[in-house]
Amino acid sequence: MMSRVLKILVGATFFSQIAMAQTPAEPQGSAEGAPAVDVTVPQRADISPQEMLTQSQMYRTNMMQTSQRLNQMVDDARKQKDVIRLNCLTDKVVQSNANMNILEKALQNLQDAAARNDQGAATHEYTRITIVNQKVQILGAEAEGCVGEELQFVGATKVDVEVSPDVRKDDGTQPGTLDPVYERPPAASPFI
Fold first, then answer.
1. How far apart are CA 172 and CA 192, in angstroms?
2. Which residue among 21, 29, 35, 88 is buried most deeply as judged by most CB within 10 Å?
3. What residues contact 171, with CB distance under 8 A and at least 6 apart?
4. In a domain? residue 30
5. 90 in any annotated domain
6. How far is CA 41 from the centre of its chain?
């Protein structure tokens, strides 16, 4: 029995190797497709590492101003005891702080790459700084949209009630004010 299984395994292994070694069949007919398309990414304008540093410093200044504005908004919400707005703004501040940390590391790496005159590393770090700058600017815009309690409660509520003349005047919620209405229950069986 064991030799039979062994023979089957050896035979299957041998024939599978032959099947894998065969060349693929030639395609039938001619396939006419779309014309060739250029899928290369166009190159951006090159700027020097020093220009990257200058632009990154401007980004850093803008990001610091946005971060300070977010912190001011948090302080205002805290003073107004607006918990809903405070939660929204706190989330934006945490994300902004994380992006500021990324900025500081990328800026240091950019300075190192500029000192080594490494264009590839400088471009990479400059790209990181640009993306982080965009994220912080978006967070600043989102923070302006954080709504709190002041927009939910505009003023004192005034209720005008109009009662139809068809509605009864007596109070149905007080015992003894309504005349009892008796209805005979339906018959339990038609045979009784």
1. 36
2. 88
3. 177
4. no
5. yes
6. 27
Span 171-176, average pLDDT? 72
Task: Work out how many domains the chain is built from and give that number.
Answer: 1
Answer whether residue 41 is part of any domain. Answer: no
Contact 140, 74 (CB under 8 A): no
Name the nearest CA neighbour of 61 among 100, 116, 6.
100
pLDDT in tens, 130-155: 999 999 999 999 998 887 655 555 56
Residue 92 lies in a domain: yes
What totals of helices (H) and strands (E) does the chain contain, helices first? 5, 0
**What does the pLDDT read at residue 188?**
83
Amino acid at 93: V
Q: Which of 104, 103, 109 is nearest to 124 (CA)?
A: 109
For residues 107 and 56, is the Cβ–Cβ distance under 8 A? yes
| Residue 114 to residue 55: CA distance in whole angstroms | 13
- Paired tokens of 169: 């005047």
Rounded Cα gap, residues 29 and 14, in angstroms: 34
In which domain, by residue range, is 72 found?
Answer: 49-144
